[in-house]
Structures are given as C-alpha cells and as structure tokens.
Amino acid sequence: MTTAYQSSIAWQRAGAVASGQLGDARETLHHAAQLLPLVGASYLLARADDSHTSVRWLADTRAFATEIVEAARPFRVALRASDLTLLFLEASGREAGMFPLSERTRNEAIAWLRARIGDAGRDPAALHTSLHFSIAHHATDDGAPFVRQSEGLEELSRWYANANAVLEAQQARRTGASDVRCWPHHFDIATLVTLSSGPFQTIGIGMSPGDASYNEPYFYVTPYPRPASRVAPLEVGIWHATDWWGALLLASEIVAVRSAAEQLALVTRFIEGAFNAVVDPRRETPP
What is the mean pLDDT of residues 208-212? Predict the structure, then answer.
C-alpha cells in the first residue's frame, strides 16, 4: 500500500544497468566530483564539520552543486552526473557556462573554473588544486582525460536522485535531521539525525554508490556510537558489523522488485525498520 509519505517522493525505477557493473562509472564520477569541494575549500568559510566542502543534489538540474559563493556576481559550481558536465550557475540558478568533462583533463577543468570565477569577481588564483583528504588514485590524477560511460553515469544519476528525494522526505519528518548533503570523501549522500535522548547521539540515514565493502549502491542506517548489544534481525536489509556498524540494503535487492513504487516501498520499509530497531531498546537482544 502506498502511503502519503511515499506518494510525495519522486522515485525513478532503478536497474537499467546491473548494480554490480557500476564500478568504473562510479570511480570516474567520484573523481570528477572532487572539482566541487575545491571551490568550497577555496571560497567558503571553513566549518569544523567540513560541510563547506560538501555538495547538494539539485533535483531540477540533476547535478551535484556547491553552496553559493559570495562575489560581485554570486555563483555556484555544479556537476551534472549523467554526462560529466561542469556547470557555472548564477545564484538564481541560471546557467552562465558549461564545460563537458568528457575527453578533457582535470587541469583543463581547473583552468576553465578559474576563468569563470575571475569573471564572477573572485580571485581565480585562490582556487585550490588539492584537498586535505585523498581518495583512491585514478588515471585522471595523472593527466588522463575523463571518459564518459553514458549508461553507468545515467544509472548513478538515478540512484542519487532517488536517494536525495527519499532523504529530503526523511529530513522533513524527523526532528533533529540535518540538511541532505553529499560528502566528497566517501561520496555518500545522507542526513544526520541528532537525538535528544537514549544511548545514541546521532543516526545517519544515507546512500552510498558503492565502496570497498560493496561494489554496488546501498542505503544505510548507522547509529553513533556503536551499540553495546546486538540488535535484532531486520525484516528488510542486514546488519553490517565489521569495519563500520549499521544496517544496509543493497541495490541488487532493490532492483529485484519490478516497479518504481515497489522499489520505493522496499527502501522505505528498510529505513523505518532499521531506524526503529536502533532507537527502540526493546528490540535489542544480548550480544
């Protein structure tokens, strides 16, 4: 049965590309997206939680985007996920420039960004070329051009769009939930719910496009600190308890159901079930 909560979420049917075959496209997109936190690190006021280097998902543009940078002509920089295109956007959202990354290098992209930033009224020389964290090495780090993997990028764009819609709905209905952000280090998109009581300080609800643990996208629910006792099995999803602790639902399970409505219903059941299992101590069992 579709609830009012579910009917408010725009979910596109995922699964056009097998979830386990997105690795190359994911790595390319992750490295292209590192251009955005360079802007945040260079022109936004630094924050202790590093959120000035995070990005948002713009649903209308279907792109990752920085926050608005103050300038003579305020701007933000975005990356359209489906075709690896950098966008230079005015504060109003109007497009003021675009740079397709396919067959272009990272240095060429930085040169283009500096030119646009200078035109907007900020010092182009202030744009950083490196960050305080690193991700796995990629050919584009050595000067190779970006290669657009069309079907894989379009599928990843669907996963991020779906996750953003689900997470914004979660944020709207949960007290203490943060803005939905995509974090450039691990490339996950999430909201963080701060709790006012109980054994946990926060619960993260998010989606990873895949990582060293799982070579496919997955939704997750992660409490902090780690529970002192074992939580009961989930009706939907599994508990992950090795390098990190939390509940997860793999993309391969989501796309196994037929319709967009059924996929959304499964993700919703997972998030609600895992969140309730964490916050309700009656659901805990001895280690």
Answer: 96
154 and 247 belong to one structural domain: yes
The answer on 168 and 134 residing in a single domain is: no
Tell me: the pLDDT tens digits for 70-111?
Answer: 999 999 999 999 999 999 999 999 999 999 999 999 999 999
pLDDT (0 to 100) of residue 39? 98
Q: pTM, whole model, 2 decimals?
A: 0.95
Q: State residue 4's pLDDT score.
A: 63
> What is the CB neighbour count within 10 angstroms for residue 287?
7
210 pLDDT above the threshold of 90: yes
Residues 185 and 108 occupy one common structural domain: no
For residues 154 and 281, state if they share a domain. Answer: yes
Number of C-beta neighbours around residue 259 at 10 A:
10
Q: How many domains does the chain have?
A: 2
Q: Would 3 be classed as within a structural domain?
A: no
Q: Given 98, 126, 142, which residue is the final one in a domain? A: 142
**In which domain, by residue range, is 80 found?**
19-142
- Judgement on whether residues 31 and 133 belong to the same structural domain of the protein: yes
pLDDT per residue over 221-254, tens digit each? Answer: 999 998 877 677 899 999 998 889 999 999 999 9
Which of 95, 123, 142 finishes a domain? 142
